[in-house]
């Protein structure tokens, strides 16, 4: 089946997002072929997984992510907010993440930055990717155009992708100028025409974030080669192995 399942921040519906627990669940699910994770930098320059710019929502820490050293971040509880079952779950480095998935899953690594928030973020992430020899197993995505440009300046062979929530009129021109081969798009903005146009240009398209079976099926009908990002990969069999679906399309 060509439609591919991307586990959003790992299997974040069941486990705390961007943690090893969520990644391990993704690794154990045969339907998952990709994970999507968010990367920022510690104060001492360690790339690690977290979505928000503050620690408040997903850890027992407080304040901006960038104010903490990696040693301080490792001491935080990143699981109790989800459930007692995950009390004591820790934040993880990008290094640990890639070591866990190498040869098993591909990774959509979102560079969480804007402006000059994290000088050197791109180089640090590229260094970790090269360490694990995963240049052909990852795509670096971002809302930030400068960040994507920096990746191409420093590692031309790495794939990059633009993330969009709204549809700019010059979308494909932007993608071309940024040398992107990947488009990460809010599923509500995706149409069959857009998906086909992207495919003709050799672009992979990932729709985010979809947690309803009906919506998964509708999206699958737009184009056979989509990636669908979900917090709940456990819904995949219900969406795509039902009798009324063939190769991700309605009969």
List the helices and strands and how they pair.
Layout (H helix, E strand, L loop, with lengths): L3 E5 L11 H9 L3 E10 L5 E3 L20 H5 L19 H8 L4 E6 L9 H11 L6 E5 L2 H10 L4 E6 L6 H8 L3 E5 L5 H9 L3 E5 L4 H8 L6 E4 L5 H5 L4 E2 L2 E2 L1
Parallel strand pairs: 1-2, 1-9, 2-4, 4-5, 5-6, 6-7, 7-8, 8-9
Antiparallel strand pairs: 2-3, 10-11
Helix pairs in contact: 1-3, 4-5
Describe the model.
This protein has 251 residues and is of the alpha/beta class. It has one domain: Alpha-Beta Barrel (TIM Barrel). The chain is built from nine helices and eleven strands. It has helices at 20-28, 70-74, 94-101, 121-131, 145-154, 171-178, 192-200, 213-220, 236-240, and strands at residues 4-8, 32-41, 47-49, 106-111, 138-142, 159-164, 182-186, 204-208, 227-230, 245-246, 249-250. The strands form two sheets. The chain has an eight-stranded parallel β-barrel with strand order 1-2-4-5-6-7-8-9, surrounded by six helices. A two-stranded antiparallel sheet has the order 10-11. Helix 5 links the parallel strand 5 and strand 6. The radius of gyration is 18 Å and the shape is globular.
